[in-house]
Design goal:
Elements lengths: L1 E4 H12 L5 E2 L5 E2 L5 E2 L5 E2 L1 H4 L3 E4 L10 E5 L4 E4 L7 E6 L5 E5 L9 E3 L4 E5 L9 E5 L4 E8 L1
Antiparallel strand pairs: 1-6, 2-3, 4-5, 7-14, 8-13, 9-12, 9-14, 10-11, 10-13
């Protein structure tokens, strides 16, 4: 666990998300310059207090499930159940047939996310992660996907 200054924390947030922090004025144009930062209680953070603020960040490693395979049927089949703790999921079409995914909904043939034979889909925190159920469907049924998730 490392103690970081507030500036370092903002930098890590930017580096991890590639989302720039910006301010917009009443006219709708971007303001370049100072940004007023406040704590959760509304106290202003000034240059005098900025460097004095230290926060302990703990990078928790991912805990992966055992690799598994799921036989996808010709009707919607649950590949991964709802998991509010999910931080990563990977699904690979390990068959010779197209498989369609429904994220948070029933899978429907020729709709949703297409996994071509040998194709894969990753659900990654900070990008496209879903904690909802992920379902699959294929034409003939009994086609395998391999799957692994992490919390």
């Amino acid at each position: 666990m490392a103690d970081l200054s507030f500036r370092q924390i903002l930098r890590k947030v930017y580096d991890a998300t590639s989302v720039a922090l910006s301010v917009v004025n009443k006219a709708g144009t971007a303001v370049i310059g100072k940004v007023r930062l406040v704590t959760a209680t509304g106290d202003e953070i000034t240059d005098d207090t900025l460097d004095a603020m230290k926060v302990a960040l703990k990078d928790e490693p991912l805990t992966y499930s055992a690799p598994a395979k799921v036989a996808v049927g010709s009707s919607t089949t649950e590949i991964l159940a709802i998991n509010a703790s999910r931080r990563y999921a990977g699904i690979v079409n390990d068959s010779d047939e197209e498989i369609y995914l429904g994220v948070g909904a029933a899978a429907v043939m020729n709709q949703g996310v297409l996994l071509s034979p040998g194709g894969s889909m990753e659900f990654v925190r900070g990008q496209n992660l879903s904690t909802q159920a992920i379902n699959g469907i294929c034409t003939s049924g009994s086609k395998n996907v391999t799957v692994q998730e992490a919390v």
